[in-house]
Amino acid sequence: MPEKKKNIPYHLGIIIDGNRRWAKERGLPVFVGHQRGYEKVKQVGDWCLKKGIKILTIFAFSAENWHRSKKQVNYLMKLLKKALSPRNIKQFNQKGIKVQVIGQKERLDKSFQKIIARAEEKTKNNKKGILNLAISYGGRAEIVEAIKKIIKEKIPLEKINEETVSQRLWTAGLPDPDLIIRTSGELRTSGFLTWQSAYAELFFIKKYWPDFTEKDLDEALADYSQRQRRFGR
Predict the structure, then answer these.
(1) Domain with 42 in it: what CATH number?
(2) Residues 82-112: pLDDT tens digits?
(3) Is 17 a catalytic residue?
(4) How would you list the strands of the sheet with 201-204, edge to edge?
(5) Domain that residue 19 falls in
(6) pTM reported for the whole predicted model
(7) 7, 17, 218, 223: the active-site residue
(8) Is the pLDDT of residue 1 over 70?
(9) Pairing of strands 55-62, 11-15
(10) Is residue 212 part of a domain?
(11) Is residue 81 part of a domain?
(12) Which of 7, 19, 46, 65 is catalytic?
């Protein structure tokens, strides 16, 4: 794992929210909001790398988002596939970023599953940072899947502990998030990294995701650096 920097979150999670509202308030199609949101993710990834954040987990598409209109879901899937295009993978490799997708991959179409597998394989040896894209992700679903794995592996009751569960989550092998940011003014985590965020610091911002700036990120990091993380001790 890359070296941890003092007072900088090693693992940052972001709930990107407000793309549709951003577009509607400007009289634009919701698809424009999603496109702006996609562009913002690319910007924020570069900012995080520059500031020493080593793991960035983006809540890109929740399990509940499947309930949106078919047209909107198809557009979001198109953007997510674009994010993992050969051109972008080349950029990830140039920057030393390892790409991983966490979530219900089996719910994605076969072509997308192949795109994900290719992206993960092509970037697996990169060491400067990790980008987790949470796609068709739900925190409860993740825990249920971990429980199923434990049952399938027939692990004795007395040997089941927190580590047993953590090792069977989609984020297995990664440290828990230090800081989680949510945009759009909503004050909830909506099932994002439910197990892993037990002791994460939370930071909420009223701006919609397309309006998120590097200054906003700096404010969140400054706020984080002033907090005392005692983990219940």
Answers:
(1) 3.40.1180.10
(2) 999 999 999 999 999 999 999 999 999 999 9
(3) yes
(4) 97-102, 129-137, 55-62, 11-15, 179-182, 201-204
(5) 11-225
(6) 0.94
(7) 17
(8) no
(9) parallel
(10) yes
(11) yes
(12) 65
- Structural domains counted in the chain: 1
Q: Helices marked H in the chain — which ranges?
A: 19-25, 30-51, 70-83, 86-95, 110-123, 139-152, 162-166, 214-225
Residue 125 annotated among the catalytic residues of the structure = no
Calpha distance 102→74 (Å, rounded): 19
CA gyration radius for the chain?
18
Inter-residue contact 14 to 55 (CB < 8 Å): no
- Tell me the one-letter amino acid at 164: T
Task: Evaluate whether residue 2 is within a structural domain.
Answer: no
- Determine, yes or no, domain membership for 107: yes
Residue the block writes with tokens 């993740």: 142
pLDDT tens track for 108-164: 999 999 999 999 999 999 999 999 999 999 999 999 999 999 999 999 999 999 999
Average pLDDT, the chain: 95
Q: Which residue type occupies 104?
A: Q
The answer to whether residue 232 scores a pLDDT higher than 90 is no
